[in-house]
Write a structure and sequence with these properties.
This protein has 385 residues and is α+β, with helices and mostly antiparallel strands. Helix content is 17%, strand content 29%. The protein has eight helices and 22 strands. The strands form six sheets. A seven-stranded antiparallel sheet has the order 4-5-6-10-9-8-7. Strands 15-16-17-21-20-19-18 form a seven-stranded antiparallel sheet. The radius of gyration is 21 Å and the shape is globular. 45% of the residues are buried. The N terminus is likely disordered.
């Protein structure tokens, strides 16, 4: 059965190109999307457009709705397919001298042409702050949201979700004590100013504490403790503890360990098109690059969850393709490259590959890139285990 994380990755591909260029999705796929939402189709509108638009509407209407675990109402994670993500306050532009990447060891025979864009070395994508003291048993997943109209009306903001390591790694070993959960939010303004930030503690504050010399407001509610304060640099920071981490003293200690040390998000491009910038990332498993001249044009890298045991062919099932996927070799391992079946627009490439650590990935690229360039980018994709 497809897990929640795998479904996120499969849905994410639908958001990687312009709405006008999206082909029809198979009706049975749309049935799966609409079954839970109680949707009806609009006559003569492509199924993929209906699905994508409704996913966005659902995210805007239900940002506070729990997705997998309880107590997500305070600081919400939107699903990758809907809300992947955002530009930073100072968007990191991908610059560098032209790279000479390792080329593909096989070339696909798909005939849809690409015109090519110069590729450059990509800068490392990072989350702006670090916890010097990470609670035992927790591993962070990083997100960057907002900043572009297509992703909401707020300036860009960041969320680090410190989840149980067993959930992040897909460990199916014997159950261990739940270490709880911590969410760290970093905002350019008071996050209570907009519901889109997702910081909505219930009820009135229950007190104040001091964190790194600043006064922090405290909320205690239903197994959750939340802190919010403004840093001297003007940014606002929230800490939310759940379960074993729902303790004011614990959160004050974690807040005191926050340092201005950027940390890699765990999913990286080694090569990128010249003149493209980081658009955002979601839960360290989906990363978008956006054209500086056409923000609707995306290059999306999605990492499939560690629990996935299927094949690359299965990853592409249900994807509208112009022809059968072509076998290629990416990072020394078998991969598949396919041209998307477009609806009058420029279309897209989909590359399914496997990293040396065993994790599968999907790369959705515009057909302005050549087949060789898509493979060159795939050669230099990296991800933490």
């Amino acid at each position: 059965m497809t897990t929640d994380r795998e479904l996120d990755v499969l849905l994410a591909g639908a958001a990687g190109v312009r709405d006008a260029d999206l082909p029809d999705l198979p009706e049975e796929f749309l049935d799966l999307v609409t079954a839970d939402a109680g949707l009806s189709l609009v006559a003569d509108e492509p199924a993929s457009v209906v699905a994508a638009r409704q996913l966005v509407a659902d995210a805007q209407a239900a940002r506070g709705t729990p997705r997998r675990r309880p107590h997500r109402r305070t600081l919400v994670r939107a699903t990758t397919a809907v809300l992947v993500l955002a530009a930073a306050w100072t968007t990191a532009v991908l610059v560098g001298s032209p790279a000479t990447p390792a080329g593909p060891t096989a070339t696909p025979t798909a005939t849809t042409p690409g015109h090519g864009i110069a590729l450059v070395a990509a800068e490392e994508v990072t989350f702006p702050l670090s916890l010097a003291e990470v609670p035992d048993g927790l591993t962070p997943l990083f997100s960057r949201r907002g900043g572009l109209p297509r992703y909401g009306s707020t300036p860009a903001f960041f969320v680090a979700d410190y989840e149980p390591t067993s959930l992040v790694s897909g460990d199916t070993g014997p159950a261990v004590a739940d270490p709880g959960r911590v969410l760290l939010g970093v905002y350019p303004e008071d996050p209570r100013s907009s519901e889109e930030y997702g910081f909505r503690p219930e009820g009135d504050p229950t007190g104040t504490v001091t964190v790194q010399g600043a006064e922090a407001t405290v909320w205690r509610e239903r197994g959750t403790v939340s802190l919010l304060w403004q840093r001297p640099d003007g940014r606002w920071v929230s800490l939310v503890g759940e379960g074993a981490q729902a303790d004011t003293a614990t959160l004050v200690g974690l807040g005191g360990s926050i340092v201005d040390r950027p940390q890699p998000v765990g999913l990286q491009f080694g090569l990128a098109p010249a003149g493209w910038s980081v658009g955002g990332y979601e839960e360290s498993r989906s990363l978008d690059l956006v054209s500086d001249t056409d923000p609707d044009s995306l290059l999306r890298l999605s990492l499939v969850g560690p629990q996935y045991a299927g094949t690359l062919d299965e990853l592409l099932e249900g994807t509208p393709l112009a022809g059968p996927p072509e076998p290629v070799t990416v990072q020394g391992l078998p991969g598949l490259l396919a041209a998307g079946r477009d609806a009058g627009g420029p279309g897209s490439w989909t590359l399914a590959g496997r990293l040396p650590n065993g994790r599968c990935f999907l790369l959705l690229a515009p057909q302005e890139l050549t087949q060789d360039q898509v493979l060159q980018i795939g050669e230099q994709v990296t991800a933490d285990s």
